[in-house]
Amino acid sequence: MVNLDEIKGPEKLHDLSPEELKEISLQVRERIIEVVSRNGGHLASNLGVVELTVALHSVFSSPRDKIVWDVGHQCYAHKLLTGRQQEFNTLRQYKGLSGFPKTTESEHDIVETGHSSTSLSSALGLSLARDQKGEDHEIIAVIGDGALTGGMALEALNHIGHLQQKMIVVLNDNEMSISKNVGALSNYLARIRSEPMYQKLRSDAEILLKRIPAIGNRMAFAADRVKDSLKYLVLPGIFFEELGFTYMGPVSGHDIPAMRQLFQRCKRLKGPLLIHSITEKGKGYDPAEKSPSRFHGTGPFILENGQGKGKSGAKTYTGAFSDIISDLGAKDERVVAITAAMPDGTGLQKFAHEFPDRFYDVGIAEQHSVTMAAGLARGGMKPVIAIYSTFLQRAYDQIIHDVCLPCLPVIFAVDRAGLVGADGETHHGVFDLSFLRHIPNMTVLAPRDQGEMEKMFAWALHYEGPVAIRYPRGPVPQAPFNGFRPLVKGRGDVLRQGQDITILASGSMVWDSYQVAELLEKRGVSAAVVDLRFIKPLDEELIKRWAKKTDLIVTVEENNVPGGMGSAVLELMAREKLQKPVLNLGLPDRFISHGSCDQLRRENGLDVENMVDRIESFWFSQPDLEIKDTQYENKTGPFTRKKRAFFFKK
Ligand SMILES: Cc1ncc(C[n+]2csc(CCOP(=O)(O)OP(=O)(O)O)c2C)c(N)n1
To answer: Residue 218 belongs to what H/E stretch?
Structure first.
C-alpha cells in the first residue's frame, strides 16, 4: 500500500494510480487532523483542499510549475506532499514549520503569504517574468471565494483579463470566508453552484455541440475559447468569461480524477483560465464539517469530539470589546459597527446579533471598510471599525486620505495589536503605533486593563475626530487597584512613584512594567511607572517632569521600536533638550517568527525577567553614573540615601 511517508516529493504522485491518490488523500487528511488537534491551526480550510492539492501536485511539477496559495492558511497538504512530513508535527510551534508558505522553508513555497487576496497579483507577476525570460512553466493561483472578495484580487482579475496572460486560477469555493461569505459575488457563485438551471443549461449546451457530427467533440472543447457566442449568455461563469478568462466548472474539488482532467486540459489551453472548484470546508472531520467557522482557526482540541483543550476561560480584550461595543450601541443609535470578514475574531458577533441593521460585514475589504466608515461618519453616524492591527496595514492611505484629512470621527478598534503567537510574521500587530501616530488629527490610545478600555471607548464616542484604540490578543487584566485620574485627552496616569528611573509604558505592557518596577526595587533601583494612555498626543508635560526628576527614562511598548511610542518620547526629549539616557524596550527591527506569545516575548527580551535585567544593565552601564548621597523627603520627613545618579559633563 502506498504510504505518505514515502512521498519524498510531489513528483512521486505522478506515478500513482487513482486509487493510490485517493489513499494518499486519506493519509494526508488523517495527519492534518492529528497534528492540528495537538498544535492548533487552520483545520477546516486545510481539510477542504486535500484532494485539490493532491490533484494539483499529481499533474503539475512543483517547483518548476509554481503554485501560489492565497492567504496560505490552507497549505498543510501542500507541505505534507512537498517533503515536510517528518517535521509536520512541529507545525506552528516555536522554531518549527510555519503555518503559512515560507520561501525559506521550501523551494515549493513560492511566495510568503498570510494576508488575503494577493495570489492573483503574485501569480500574474510570476507569469509575466516567465514570459519575459522565455520560460514555459505553469503558474497556478489557488484562491478561496472569501479571498476573492478582496479588492486586490479583483484588481488583478481586471488586469489579467486585459493582458490575456497564460495562468491558471483555481477558485476554491466553499461558500465560506471565516464565517459565511458575504457579497454580491458570493451570491453569484452560489447561484452557479446551486441553480439546477445553470447546471442543466451547461450540460444541454455541451450535449448539443457534441451531437454535431465529426467536429462535435472538438467544438465542445474549442467552445471554451469562443467568446460572445450565444451560449455564454446562459452558461455558468459568464462573469469570468466576460473578464477574459476561460471558465471551467463548477467541478467538485474532492473528485481527484475530475480535477486532474481539467488540469491536464489547462496545459493545452492559452490565456487566463479559471477552474471553479467546489469544496466543503472541514471535509472528513465531523466536528469541522458541522462548525467550519469554529474550526477555521482552532487551538488544540480533543480528537474524539473536537472540544477545545486548555482554554483558560479568562475574559479577553476582544471579549471586553464585544461587551463595550454592544453597550455603546444600546446607548447611542448612531453607533454602527464594521468588520472586514471577521465578525467572530473581532468580537462583533454580539453587536451583529443585537443590532443587525447597524452592523456591516464588508468581506475581506479593509480599504473599503475604512473609506465607507468615513462616509458613515460624514453622514452623522458613529462608525466603529473592529479590525486586527495587521490587516489595518492594508488601509493606510484610506486612514490618512479619507478619515484623518477631513478629521472624521471614526473609531478604530485595533485588535491583536502586539504579538499574536503561532500565526507568525504576517500576523503580528507590531507596526500600528508607528503607522498611526504620525498622522495629523489621529488620536491613539492603548488600555492597560478592562476598566481603562471601557473609559477609552466611552471617551472616543464623544470625541470629534479619528481615534484608534489598540489592544492585544489574550486575557484582559482586571485592574489590581483603582482610583486613578479620569481619562483626559493627552494625559498619562502615574501608577507608581520612584526616584531613579521612570518607566513610560503603554497598553499591554503597563502591568508588566509595574511588576518590573517592584522587582527593581528589590535590587535597589527605584522606578516610577507611568501609563501614558495616549500614544498620541503624548503627555509632554508629564514626561518632561519625570525626565527632570529621575535619571533614566525607559519606554515599554508591544510595537516595533522604530517609529513607535519610544521614538515619540525620544523626539520630545530631543526637542526639549532633556539630556537623560533613554532605553527603548519594544520589538526589534526585524520580522518575528511564530511561537507562543510567551516564547516570543522572552526571545525579544520583553518578558518581566528580561526587562528587569535589561534595565538594570543599562542603568549600570552608563558611563556618567556616580553614586552620591541624595536628600529625599517622605511623610516622616527628610532623609538621605545613597543614590546612583547621572552627572553630565558640561
Ligand atoms: C487582508 C486579510 N484580511 C483578513 C484575513 C483573515 N482571514 C484569513 S482566512 C480568511 C477567510 C478566507 O476565506 P477563503 O479565501 O474563502 O478561504 P477558506 O478558508 O474558506 O478556504 C480571512 C478573512 C487575512 N488573512 N487577510
So the answer is: helix 216-222
C-alpha to C-alpha distance for 554 and 528, rounded to whole angstroms: 10
Tell me, in angstroms, the distance from the centre of ligand 1 to residue 295's CA.
13
Q: Residue 12 Cα, ligand 1 centroid: separation in angstroms?
A: 31
Name the amino acid, one letter, at 454. Answer: E
- The pTM of this model reads 0.92
Q: Are strands 527-531 and 501-505 parallel, antiparallel or unpaired?
A: parallel
The ligand 1 site (C-beta within 6 Å) comprises 45, 48, 71, 73-74, 115-116, 144-147, 172, 174, 176-178, 281, 296, 340-342, 364, 366, 391, 394
The pLDDT tens digits for 246-259 are 999 999 999 999 99
Residue 181 CA, closest ligand 1 atom number: 16
Strands 493-496 and 527-531: antiparallel
| Euclidean distance between CA atoms 204 and 533, whole angstroms | 67
39 secondary structure, DSSP code: H
Contact status, residue 250 vs residue 276, Cβ threshold 8 Å? yes
For residue 574, give the amino acid letter: A
| Cβ burial, residue 211 (10 Å; 0-12/13-18/19+) | exposed
Which among 327, 537, 520 is positioned nearest to 529, based on CA atoms? 520
Phi, psi angles (nearest 5°) of residue 211:
-70, -20
399 secondary structure, DSSP code: I
Centroid of ligand 1 to alpha carbon of 165 (angstroms) = 26
Identify the band that residue 219 occupies on the pLDDT scale cut at 50, 70 and 90: low
pLDDT score for 242: 93
Peptide bond into 63 cis (omega under 30): yes
Computed from CA positions of residues 78, 251, 145, 321, in that sequence, does the dihedral angle turn out positive or negative? negative
| Alpha helices by DSSP H, 274-387 | 286-290, 317-331, 349-354, 366-378
515-522 long-range contacts, CB within 8 A, separation 24+: 515/608, 516/556, 516/608, 516/611, 516/612, 516/615, 519/608, 519/609, 519/612, 520/612, 520/615, 520/616
pLDDT in tens, 174-200: 998 888 889 999 898 988 887 655 555
Catalytic residue (one of 394, 470, 473, 536): 394
Mapping DSSP to helix (H, G, I), strand (E, B) and coil, where does residue 459 land? Answer: helix
Question: Helices 510-522 & 608-620, crossing angle to 10 degrees?
Answer: 60
Residue ranges of alpha helices (H) inside 333-388 are 349-354, 366-378
Three-state DSSP class for residue 317: helix
DSSP H/E element including 144: strand 139-144
The answer, yes or no, to whether residue 650 has pLDDT greater than 50, is no
Q: What's the burial of 423, exposed, middle or buried (CB within 10 Å: 0-12/13-18/19+)?
A: buried
In this structure, the number of other CB atoms found within 10 A of the CB of residue 243 comes to 16
Cα–Cα distance list, 458 to 332, 346, 395, 462 (Å): 11, 18, 25, 7
Q: How far apart are CA 557 and CA 531, in angstroms?
A: 11
Torsion region of 117: left, alpha or beta (phi above 0 gives left; psi -120 to 50 gives alpha): left
